[in-house]
Write a structure and sequence with these properties.
The structure holds 2 protein chains of 2 kinds.
Chain A: E1 3-14, E2 17-28, E3 32-36, H1 43-50, E4 56-63, E5 66-67, H2 73-78, E6 81-84, H3 96-103, H4 109-121, H5 123-127, H6 138-150, E7 156-160, H7 168-181, E8 186-190, H8 194-200, E9 203-208, E10 211-217, H9 218-223, H10 225-232
Parallel strand pairs in A: 3-8, 3-9, 6-7, 7-8
Antiparallel strand pairs in A: 1-2, 1-4, 4-5, 9-10
Helix pairs in contact in A: 3-6, 6-7
Chain B: H1 2-32, H2 39-57, H3 60-83, H4 90-112, E1 117-118, E2 128-131, E3 134-137, H5 138-160, H6 162-172, H7 174-179, H8 184-210, E4 212-213, H9 217-232, H10 237-257, H11 264-276
Antiparallel strand pairs in B: 1-4, 2-3
Helix pairs in contact in B: 1-5, 1-8, 1-9, 1-10, 2-3, 2-4, 2-8, 2-9, 3-8, 5-6, 6-8, 9-10, 9-11
Classes of the chains: A alpha/beta, B mainly alpha.
């Protein structure tokens, strides 16, 4: 599989704090790459840095062989990268329909089809189409955030902790939806819930103290109890 | 009863003028978190250029268009040169925009002279209608109609069009809007220009309403707009309309019944709102 996104020794600061100190990984086209690591390891900052929401201080971020490390966020997004942030970023005063409309970059036939597909995947969104985003439940907000990123023809989706704060039954639903999306789109997933990550992921990278320290196939990680305990705290 | 209606029309007309100025201010604050004290400068430039063009051509419509174009251009220059370097720093914003307000005010004197200028309404808007025993002054009704029209058009754009949705979304979460592929800086600039154009429109409308223009009127009138934004809630468009009408009516009625309190009533309203609802009547807590 060819490389879609490549980070090479990326460093980033938030104010005076040196958060990312050497992140390198390769996201192959197709499938799901998972970033794992303890709280505060730098996973969310990595996604934000790819999106240009944090500046790259050193290293390169390459998307489809183009260095996107110095581009503004909207241009990075328009290259074909969708982003679902950790807090979902749902516009609370806008209805579900308006949230979707803001996200739609085109109103062509392909986008309409994707919209129909994603609404079939998340029927709750259709049901609450005229309800304000702020009035949705946590799970519904997550569905809306994912749907919003998926409605455009993005080649890569960055999804940050989609299971955070959700009831187990909703986590299953979100997992199922991401499994369906991975058939059409490459996904870079940050996830603390190892059960979910291991169900969805194909390859993984472990981030610790702002550095990538280990990588491999998800199937291998499931067997490696020592690695899981050392970096993920899973006994 | 006639008196009540007459005072209400006066209050509504003043309220609509304040609304035009405050609406731009509240959008600029809501979306960009910018405290723009130069807003009164945009108002006065709209007033002077609009009146100048009105008097040169004899057409009030041309005067209004000139004021709006002046507002758009000044808005563009102000956002790019004055505001952009101080995004995110309220103290610097207050200092630089207040300074720029004074520059705009003094520059009016350089271009148009330091003396007050008399302004008369266009012929078609002079005089009044008589409905029963009630005298309705044409120009005041015109101001109310323009205010309502601007509110309806702006509300339609904000609620029904994609650009309006983007502006509202940007008020809530700028980062997310950018992550959806939208150039928020461009949106900022457009909103600033539209806000400035509304201030300039308010300027020419007020010039004809008050019958006289002078360089300092921008600063005086913009204080009312700030009071309205605080009462209505920072960033709330509907809040600005409601608060502007409230302030306009309060001023009109107090000026008649308790003239000594007519200036203090706005401050009093703002103080009461700040005590019981610091985020403003329509603001989010």
């Amino acid at each position: 599989m060819s490389s879609l996104l490549k980070l090479d020794q990326v460093e980033a600061h938030i104010q005076k704090f040196h958060i990312l100190q050497g992140i390198s990984f390769d996201v192959k086209k197709g499938g799901v790459t998972v970033l794992l690591g303890r709280n505060g390891a730098g996973k969310t900052t990595t996604l934000r840095t790819i999106m240009g929401l944090n500046q790259v201080s050193k290293g390169t971020v390459t998307f489809k062989d183009e260095n996107i490390g110095s581009l503004p966020t909207h241009q990075i997004s328009n290259k074909g990268i969708g982003y679902v942030p950790e807090d979902q970023g749902v516009f609370g005063d806008l209805t579900v329909g308006e949230n979707m409309r803001v996200a739609m970059k085109k109103e062509d036939e392909a986008t309409t089809k994707r919209m129909e597909w994603v609404l079939d995947l998340f029927p709750d969104l259709k049901k609450f189409w005229k309800k304000p985003g702020g009035a949705l439940s946590g799970g519904q907000k997550q569905m809306l955030a994912i749907a919003r990123a998926y409605v455009n023809e993005n080649e890569l989706l960055l999804i940050d902790e989609p299971s955070k704060g959700l009831a187990p039954i909703i986590v299953d639903k979100v997992t199922e939806s991401i499994l369906q999306m991975k058939e059409n789109t490459t996904i870079l997933l940050v996830e603390q819930n190892f059960m979910m990550a291991s169900k969805i992921g194909n390859q993984f990278y472990i981030i610790d103290d702002g550095k990538t320290v280990h990588d491999g196939q998800m199937e291998e990680l499931k067997q490696d109890k020592v690695l899981m305990k050392k970096y993920l705290g899973i006994a | 009863m006639d008196l009540i209606i007459s005072l209400t029309v006066n209050g509504l007309a003043t309220g609509m003028l304040i609304f035009l100025l405050a609406a731009g201010l509240t959008l600029i604050f809501g979306l960009m978190s910018v405290l723009n004290f130069a807003h009164g400068g945009l108002f006065i430039w709209g007033a002077y250029t609009g009146v100048w063009s009105f008097q040169m051509t004899g057409s009030f419509v041309v005067g209004i268009i000139t004021a709006i174009i002046t507002g758009l251009l000044l808005g563009l220059v102000t956002e790019r040169l004055i505001i952009r370097p101080v995004y995110g720093n309220h103290i610097q914003q207050i200092l630089i925009t207040l300074g720029f307000m004074l520059v705009l005010q003094e520059f009016i004197k350089v271009v148009f002279g330091p003396d007050q200028k008399a302004v008369f309404p266009p012929e078609i808007l002079q005089g009044s209608f008589l409905v029963g025993d009630i005298v309705l002054i044409k120009y005041r009704l015109f101001i109310i109609a323009v205010g309502i029209l601007i509110f309806i058009v702006s509300s339609f754009i904000l609620k029904r069009t994609r650009i309006g949705l983007i502006v509202r979304a940007g008020v809530m979460d700028k980062e997310m809007v950018q992550s959806l592929g939208i150039n928020i800086k461009l949106v900022f600039m457009l909103v600033f220009m539209v806000g400035a154009a509304m201030a300039a429109l308010s300027g020419i409308m007020h010039a004809v309403y008050s019958g006289v223009i002078y360089a300092e009127m921008g600063l005086e009138f913009s204080i009312l707009a700030f009071i309205v934004v605080v009462i209505g809630g920072m960033g709330s468009f509907s809040g600005s309309l409601f608060a502007a009408i409230l302030v306009g009516l309060a001023q009109a009625f107090m000026a008649y019944y308790v003239p000594a309190l007519s200036l203090a009533v706005n401050m009093l309203l703002m103080t009461v709102v700040l005590i019981f609802r610091p985020q403003g009547l329509f603001g989010k807590g």
